[in-house]
Amino acid sequence: MRSRGHENVGASVGFAGDEADERRLAWVYLSRVVQGPCAALSALIERVGVVEAARAVRECDLPDSLRGPTEQRRGIDCAERDLESILGSGGRVVTPDDPEWPAWRMLGLGQLDSARDPGAAVPLVLWVRGPRSLLTASEQALAVVGARCSTGYGERVTAEIVGDLAPRGWTIVSGAAFGIDGAAHRAALAAGAPTIAVLACGVDRPYPASHARLLAEIAETGLVVSEYPPGTTAHKHHFLARNRIIAALADGVLVVEAGLRSGARNTVKWARRLGRPALAVPGPVTSASSVGCHRMIREGEAVLVGRAEEIIDEAGPLQLSLPADAPTPERSLDGDEALVYAAIPRTGARIPLELSGESGLPLPSVRAALAALDLAGLVGCDESGWFRVAPGGR
């Protein structure tokens, strides 16, 4: 999805008044209950809606697959307090109902097989600090990850690549960790490029603590993001779950330095699952900090790159020349996408609930079709709802 006009952050679309508030509180409540990816809960929300899913969790009216994951915190409903907390820290919560929700980025996570990839679920909500729209900031983005114990070589290469990508409109996504993560964020800030830090804890708890100033700087001009509610402390399994969001928010994942057991390889795994290119920078053959990169290149898990131009070749948008009489994407639509597109007026906008009524499709199908239409460049979204985009109008 892409917005038009000014960047819209934190406003609901598709619902009004009390219904929007009820849905937002339901999303926030469920985010606190599971604290991380939960494919079974995502499936329940898709089937019955978020408000009914929240009721079912509160009353333990659940299938066996959800009783365990929700047992510990289903009796804790502090949604209003969580919303007050995030607003008090200058942040916001972004739900799938909001115009800045990056639906087309998250689409891949929802299509993965959770039996094969535990933790593959779409985040229920994203807690955000920063002035930019999460949607527009992630339109052209590269994830840069690597060794926590980085070398001068790795930090220099990171700074050069990020510095070359910055004037070309790329956003840098990373995890705010020591080493390459921090170097990537700092290089983006120095070059005036947007940068997104994805945390494994609440966005109000800087982690690592010594990066509090760095995260504050990112929050001033970029975005600090987490799927974990305010006040949540980082745990080991949170970092692995966090990696899928780093990969999902970017067009590709670049690894600069990685030891043999580096967590960066987990981010590469998610990139490959999501169909994103995985890239790695080689280092000296004598460097233990580059052994992981060399292994990923040798085993075909990542493509060797050394310059910004090579990264753009692999992860950048395709530049195709089409004949003048080539069929437009609109003419080739079928199924749900055709029904939803036909329900959108040529002028003006419609919210998903209205499109559901006009197309005769259930709301989850409408949302999925809108994400696909947005990816095809046929529709956009702002505070008034979804609208058609003229060819070449992006």
Automatic annotation (TrEMBL):
InterPro entries: DprA (IPR003488), DrpA_SLOG (IPR057666). SUPFAM superfamilies: MCP/YpsA-like. Belongs to the DprA/Smf family. NCBIfam families: dprA. This is DNA-processing protein DprA. It comes from Nocardia jiangxiensis. Gene3D superfamilies: 3.40.50.450. Residues 93-314 form the Smf/DprA SLOG domain.
